[in-house]
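Researcher: Next entry in the queue.
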Amino acid sequence: MGLLSHRVERSEITEGDHIYTWRAAFTYSHHGIYIGESKVVHFTCRQEQNSRLSFSFFSSNSVLPTSLLPCLNFERCGFHQPESGVVLSCLDCFLNNGSLYRFQYEVARTIFLSKIRGGTCTTAKSDSPETVIYRALYLLQHGFGKYDILRNNCEDFAMYCKTGLLGWDRSGLGRSGQASAAFAIPLAGLVCSSLNLLIPSPIGVVTAMAGMYHISRYATDIGVRSDLVKVPVEIAAAVQHVAGREEKSSEGKESSSVGNKESSEEKETCSREEFEKANRW
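Model: Structure for this entry, 281 residues:
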């Protein structure tokens, strides 16, 4: 297990694994669930009927694969429901010429803290491969709501499939380790810039900043967060769908009528009731 991530060969992955591949020289990674037979279910930020490419985590302008011809690996490569970002792809199209990595679950705290990059492992425990695949295939048919870089991205999707953990508060961070790390860096810099007056040694400042970065990452890991609960996939899909519609509605709030506002409140009440129901499972 390396300091950056855990690279594996294709022969090493098994059904139900959470896999990912790095893009743009380790700038970001794209995640999915391997369901066997060289097929991957993953969540993308665009819905393209005729594209066989998974669009990336941080960029809405991902580089297209070398060929836009239909995938020859299997006929349904690129399948997704209308207006859904959950896509079925072959492993080749998912990797897009990148290397293959496996996301690690139930790692020790010391190993988690030793990782330089976020989005490679978690202390949370994975559910059985059968449950993971069931969630992925269910969401392929019913969607996972609106893609959001910080709150509902490809890593969030894969981690939900593996653990079933979901949170109600969409105003904060999702479950993604990449998003948490992106926030941890400026936070660590802000805190340590204040400590610069108290710590005269540059080495001491750097050490303090590194410590703050890793502590911030650990505090937001799904294995230690208390705001996440186990939610059945049938309810999770409905909650994410309603939440996505609410966000779309809020974007046009200024031009909305009073009737539309009442409808939005009804949807919010409905989604909260569904989430409270999930808490009782």
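Model: Residues 231 and 278 are 5 Å apart (CA to CA).
Researcher: Noted, moving on.
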